[in-house]
What does this fold into?
Amino acid sequence: MSDTRHRPLLLTRRSWLLGTAAVALGACDSSRPRQGFLGAMERFNQRVQSALLDPEQFAPEEPVEALTPPGAFPQYFISDRVPLAPAGWALQVGGLVARPAVLSLEDLRRMPRTDYRIRHHCVEGWSAVASWHGVRVSELARLVGADPRARFVEFRSFDAGYFSSWDGPSAFHPQTILAYGMNGEPLPPEHGAPLRLYSGVKLGYKMVKYLTAVNFLPEPTGGYWEDRGYEWFAGV
Ligand SMILES: Nc1nc2c(c(=O)[nH]1)N[C@H]1C(S)=C(S)[C@@H](COP(=O)(O)O)O[C@H]1N2
Ligand SMILES: [Mo]
It folds into this structure.
């Protein structure tokens, strides 16, 4: 299923509370959504939302009964067919780091593992529950010696250039992981194999699947949907 159907932005709970102007942005409105009044509002909202993001706040663990049945968890990718990892896949880690690295799945599996079962929120209005496991982005930052000036993290993929950039507090949140497993199994191709971003603090479109690179950067870059008018912060 290719994701060309995103409809106009739904308000996140936090945007709703703040009464943002973001609702006026259409999903396919690529006509300079960041400029003028809306752009100013979004920059304002980002500041307010970053200030509101409580690093102690966790997405609630869901009970086993809440698990979405196998096969019913929606699948999104912008490529025409399921993107398959290139032979010899490895994750490139760079940017403002002391030790740039190229990591295999084995390397990542040897790092401390985090597991949780939480709800996924897509901007289109659906939600679903799965359990995920992988390694925290904060662990990766420690491994490569990310510079404190790198207050943003960019995630890139082999899915037709899909990417997203994140604010540091969300990227380094304890529930933000590079997931290599779903529901106790290796991550399936439909859900981003071999490695995807997962988090309890962001909407679905921020969680880049089919990862190729993670870059620790001093400035935010955009994102596939973000560059098409979707909110950049996109907190749950
Ligand atoms: N590479 C890539 N990552 C992506 C997307 C995509 O199209 N390509 N879609 C995003 C959106 S909109 C959502 S809701 C989630 C969906 O994850 P799922 O396919 O595992 O349900 O992936 C996100 N990450
Ligand atoms: Mo989504």
User: Anything to note?
Assistant: The pocket of molybdenum atom (ligand 2) is lined by residues 76, 122-124, 204-205 (CB under 6 Å). The chain has one domain: 13-228.
